[in-house]
Amino acid sequence: MKSAVVSTVVLLVILVAWPVSAGYKDSPGAEGYKGEEDEGDTRSWFPLDNLLSLSYYDKICPSFEKIVATKVREWTKTDPSLGPALLRLLFHDCGVTGCDASVLLDHEGSERRSPASKTLRGFELIEDIKSELEKSCPGLVSCADILTAASRDATYQLGGPYWSNAYGRRDSTNSYAGDVEKVPSGRRDITGLLETFQSYGLNILDLVVLSGAHTIGKANCGTIQSRLYNFNATGGSDPSIDPKFADYLRRKCRWASETVYLDVVTPIAFDNQYYINLRKNMGVLTTDSELVKDPRTAPLVAAFAEGPPQIFRQQFAVSMAKLVNVGVLTGEDRVGEIRKVCSKSNSRAY
Fold it and tell me: Hey, what's the signal peptide range on this chain (predicted)?
C-alpha cells in the first residue's frame, strides 16, 4: 500500500514536468510520418538562447525530414537492429562533447576509433542520408542534425514516441578518443551517473527515463560477464540478479562476443517492461540494477513500472528533446561547420 502511494505521488510529479503543449498531435504528415500522435511535442520547452529553431529547414531544405524518415525506414526494414543502434549512437555523441556529430568523424585518434566505440553502428545509414541531402540541399544540413532526426525517426518506427526537434546544429571539427571516457558506462554507480547527467543540464528524472531506452536493443555479453562469473571473487553471480535470470544470462553469455536483449520479456517493443523487469531483479547492466536499489531513483522506477506505458513514452520524448540540446554548436560558433561527408571534417587534415 505504501509503495502504491509513493508511486502515485511520483506520477503526479511527472505529470507536472510535462510541457504545456504535451498533448499536441501533429506528426510531420506528408513531409515525414503520418503518425497517430506527437506524444512529446516540446515546442514550448526549448530555451530561447540556443539559436536552434523548429522551422530551421522549412525554407532552405523543406525535404529534410522526409528524406531522413524515408532512409531510416528503408534501412531498418532490412535490419531492424539499426533502430536501437541509432539511438545508442546519438547517446554516445551527445554524451562526450555535446550533440555535435564528433562521434561520426573517422580518423586516427577519434572517438569512433576508441575501443569503447567498437560496437557502435549506424554510420553507413547516416552517410547515406547525408549523401541524399547533398543532392537536394548541398552544404546546408549538418551531420549533427541528421543524427538527431534519424535517431528520433528510428525510435518512432520501433513504436516509441515522436517529438519535435529544433535544428540548426553545426558539426564539430574535432574528435578525440580520450573523450569517450565521459560517456556513462553500464558499470557506474548512480551517483556517478547523476553527476554526469547534471553536467549536461539534465536531472534525476531524465536519468531514469533515458535509461528506459534499454527497453529495446542488446548488450554485448563482454560488458556483463563480470556479473555472471566469479562476481567480486565469490565464485558466483551478482546476488542482486534474480537467480533464474542469472542462469539464463550465463547460458546466453558463454562468450564475450555474444549479445543479449536488455529487455528479455518484450525485446522489440518500446514499452515500460524494462522498469517492470528491474523490480524483478532482471536488470542486465549494473546501472540497470542500481536504479532499483538507489533510494533516489527507485520511486521513479516504481512509478514507470506501475503506471500506464504512455507515461513513460511521454516523458521519454521530453527528456530526449532536452538531451539533443546538450552542447550544440550553432552558427555563432566559429569552430563549427557543415560537413560535406559526415566522417570527415571540411577544414582539418588528419
Answer: 1-23
